[in-house]
Design brief:
Layout lengths: L1 H8 L3 H9 L3 H8 L5 H13 L3 E6 L7 H21 L5 E5 L11 H18 L4 E3 L7 H12 L6 E5 L5 H11 L2 E5 L14 H17 L3 E5 L3 H13 L8 E5 L4 H9 L4 E7 L4 H10 L1 H14 L1
Parallel strand pairs: 1-2, 1-8, 2-3, 3-4, 4-5, 5-6, 6-7, 7-8
């Protein structure tokens, strides 16, 4: 039951100040967020791709309060794409974006977010890669799906994320599977009310399997976002039953979590993509990583006790 408490803390300015000021915090954050700038993460990108992995890059930052901040977020992704072009890694590294970072929550935010994300999607396509729209809390999803649909008119490879714990997701999966789009399935990492989302782990896991079965049997490209060994095994079996080849779906896991498993899956011939975040506004991302998995919180507490 710690997850909801941590998620609430992720929205607390007081907790942000306390945790950011803790001497040990940077050491622990570095496990999940390997740098603050493009220059910081280029060695990580090169190292992971050299080992047969693919990546999706996330420039962290969600608490956008002005259009100027949204423009800066757009420009940060464009700078990343320029660097990927120079490295010749466009086909190995895609981008993940949160539309809140592009101004979605501001006045006129739907149109603003679409206007800001479109040049990023265009630039990504120009170097042979694509963009996936991350899912956020349930109040933002209708806007996200509408922007996804609009972008796919010109860039059909644009992906999106769906969250197993939401009641609506099974219907969303059926629609997206039929459309043939790229869909990442995750359990969900936002604090959602019982009116819209499953609250118990076993319910979420069962929903995940139902949705994944729909995606595997559909015409789209499923992206399995999970570190759960049981769900990974189930995904492989569902792919086999659906007659999918190894390049017709992929696994995605977070940088810093189960790194040996990343390499194992890649060695078996699976497409394995590492979700790698960087940037200075790391707090919300970091807190959701703690909320998702108790072991991450234990890692943080242990480090605080031994090094603080």
């Amino acid at each position: 039951m710690l997850g909801p408490v941590i998620l609430a803390a992720s929205r607390s300015d007081r907790m942000r100040r306390l945790i950011s000021a803790a001497p040990v915090t940077k050491q622990v954050v570095d496990r999940f967020i390997p740098g603050e700038t493009v220059d910081d993460v280029v060695p990580i990108i090169e190292s992971l791709t050299d080992r047969g992995l693919e990546l999706t890059m996330d420039v962290v930052g969600e608490d956008i309060t002005t259009p100027e901040q949204a423009f800066a977020a757009r420009d940060a992704y464009l700078a990343l794409i320029d660097r990927l072009r120079d490295l010749g890694l466009g086909e190995r590294v895609e981008m993940s974006v949160k539309l809140s970072m592009f101004g979605q929550a501001l006045e006129g935010g739907h149109e603003l977010a679409l206007a800001n994300v479109r040049p990023v999607v265009e630039a990504a396509a120009a170097i042979g890669t694509t963009v996936t729209l991350d899912a956020e809390d349930h109040t933002t999803l209708d806007s996200m799906f509408a922007i996804h649909e609009e972008l796919r008119k010109d860039f059909p490879q644009t992906g999106c994320v769906i969250q197993a714990y939401l009641f609506r997701t099974e219907a969303d999966a059926r629609r997206l599977a039929e459309a043939g789009s790229r869909v990442r399935l995750v359990k969900g990492a936002y604090k959602e009310p019982a009116e819209v989302a499953y609250q118990q782990k076993h319910e979420i896991d069962k929903a995940y399997v139902r949705v994944l079965k729909t995606l595997m049997e559909g015409e789209g490209y499923p992206m399995i976002g999970s570190h759960d060994p049981r769900l990974i095994s189930i995904a492989q079996e569902l792919a086999r039953k659906a007659g999918r080849k190894l390049d017709e779906y992929e696994f995605q896991m977070l940088y810093g979590i189960r790194s040996d498993e990343h390499l194992r899956l890649a060695a078996e011939g699976h497409r394995m993509r590492v979700y790698t975040a960087y940037g200075t506004d790391w707090y919300g991302y970091f807190m959701r990583r703690l909320a998702e998995k108790p072991a991450n919180l234990l890692f943080f507490v242990r480090s605080t006790l031994t090094k603080g």
